[in-house]
Amino acid sequence: MTRRTWLRTGLAGALALGLTWSSGTARVETRQQTSATAPATRRIISLVPAVTEMLFAIGAGDAVIGVSSYDHYPPAVETRTRVGALVDPDFERILSLKPDLVIVYGTQNDLVARLGRASLPVFNYEHAGLADITETIRKLGDRIGRSAEARREADRIENGLADFRRRAAGRPRPRTALIFERDAGSLRGMFASAGIGFLHDMLDVAGGTDAFGDVQRQSLQLSVEALLARAPDVILELRPDEGWSAARLEKERAVWNTLASVPAIRNGQLHIIADQRVLVPGPRVVEGVGLMFAALHK
Amino acid sequence: MTATPLKRGLPVVALGGVTLVIVTLGAPFIGSTGLHLARVFTRAVPFADNVDAQIFFLARLPRALAAALVGCALSAAGVVFQGLLRNPLATPYTLGVSAGAALGAMVAITFGAAWPVGGVATASLAGALLAVLVVYALASARHRGLSTTVLLLAGVTLNAFFSALILFVQYVSNFADTYRALRWLMGDLDVASYLPIFAALPFIVVAFVAFAWLARPLNLLSLGAEAAGTRGVNVVLVQRVAFFSASIATGAAVSVGGPIGFVGIIVPHLTRLVVGADHRLVLPASALFGGAFLVACDALARTAFAPLELPVGIVTALIGGPFFLWLLLRRR
């Protein structure tokens, strides 16, 4: 498997973690007592790519000694030891690295139990809404002794989002379908973001109205009928694949042309955003919102 | 006087035909969205601007037609497999066809973006055909003709082997793809265009021509291979035709809608309850009622929790499972 395939794998995996595995409620917790005066944590293993990005963003990159097989950002993670991922964490390798903190995903109950038996501290994380990103960063900062940096980074993100909120205010809010999965070359196997979760929140900040915002789920399988009936003004198709050729983009775009009655298609408002930043709920989320904003308010 | 049961059953077949036509043409009028019928069929508005017409002709009608085609193919293939294997528990998926199709689909879903494998439907059809050839080669390697025992064992083993390969492909794929693959396994008839139907149709037509020829020999085969042979049946030829035609029908159906369960086993058994065991009746009646059954199940799947879609395989299993158990207990 090529590096690029792994990259795609990791990002889509990170997305799927959020959209299919989490219950939709924020669950950010630490096993140990959180304290602003906690000693600096020096050997961190992160099994969650979004949290890995957060650690690097708050200057704790040097303390990250192990990452999941889905991690590819920032580029420095390529030099770190891989310790498996959501369903296949390599417990022995995690132990052998002698971590003083292991960041796990909320559904990894077995791993948490095993780490507990080994007396290894755990930071338990699940993707939820946009507000949970900065909340997690602050808690993470407190946990690893980098509270000030974490606050600065969280403030930067919140200010960036507030800026986009301001810029979107007063502009029309087009009804938008956020589609993040589709069988290549056809309109089958489509999944759309619904009324819960960071994708929904990002769209809201960028100035769009979620066409499926009334569905209280993170995602829904989208039938052709539902798409035709909801008649969105804009379709944002989010793909983790970066560097699509122009021919490939054109081919995938043409697939949509059969649904000519959808305003988005009729008015040329189908935008394919092939960029990781729209799909990872980490510190780059402001840039992701920027990409959505640019597409919505062309 | 042997013609009497056949004649008695013919109205049932006719009823099946009428039911299939009514259900298939009626299903597009039911859905999660309210349609203005006058707008659906108007010519005053261009099709590209007509939402009602697009929902009717691009979303619902292809779905109903796909469901009818898949239901017909799976039910008839179920009858043929049960006759060929002389086993009432045989399904269209017993001999590994669906596992091969699933492997093809998984490969397309996981690596489709990287390799030009021609879409999920094509890949699943290719996987199904591969499975058919492997099972045939295994079952006919040491026998003249097909040993049903070897056929069954080869099919079951291949099912397990392909399942392992499917798990392996899922293991190296990302979560989003794994979820999509899982969803494919639950069955989905939202074909989004007429293309998958037209692509599968030739295979299913060829299979049905073979089914028509098979009806009488399958009746004799039900007495046992030797007894059928003494009555002039070319047992080897019948077995081959039955195996390939039913497998091809199954592979084509799965390429359209995924491995939708229970249709291929409950519909044939229900039909037998009504018309008896004569394949000249069971085959056409199963095909027609099977098509109608799946169209109805899909209509339920897409409306029950709209705008969420219930996978159609869940509906067929939820209806089919208890019904089949009831049938089983009632027969004792």
Care to describe what's here?
The complex is a heterodimer of chains A (298) and B (332). By secondary structure, chain A is of the alpha/beta class. Chain A folds into 2 domains: 164 residues, 3-Layer(aba) Sandwich (Rossmann fold); 126 residues, Rossmann fold. Chain A contains 11 helices and 12 strands. Chain A has a 6-stranded mixed sheet with strand order 1-6-5-2-3-4, sandwiched between helices. In chain A, strand 2, helix 2 and strand 3 form a beta-alpha-beta unit. In chain A, helix 7 crosses helix 11. In chain A, 53% of the residues are buried. The N terminus of chain A is likely disordered. In chain B, helix 3 runs antiparallel to helix 12 and helix 8 packs antiparallel against helix 12. Chain B has 13 helices and no strands. Chain B has a single domain, classed as ABC transporter involved in vitamin B12 uptake, BtuC. Chain B has 332 residues and is mainly alpha-helical. The model of chain B has no long low-confidence stretch (mean pLDDT 88). Helices cover 75% and strands 0% of the residues of chain B. The interface between A and B is large, with 46 and 43 residues.
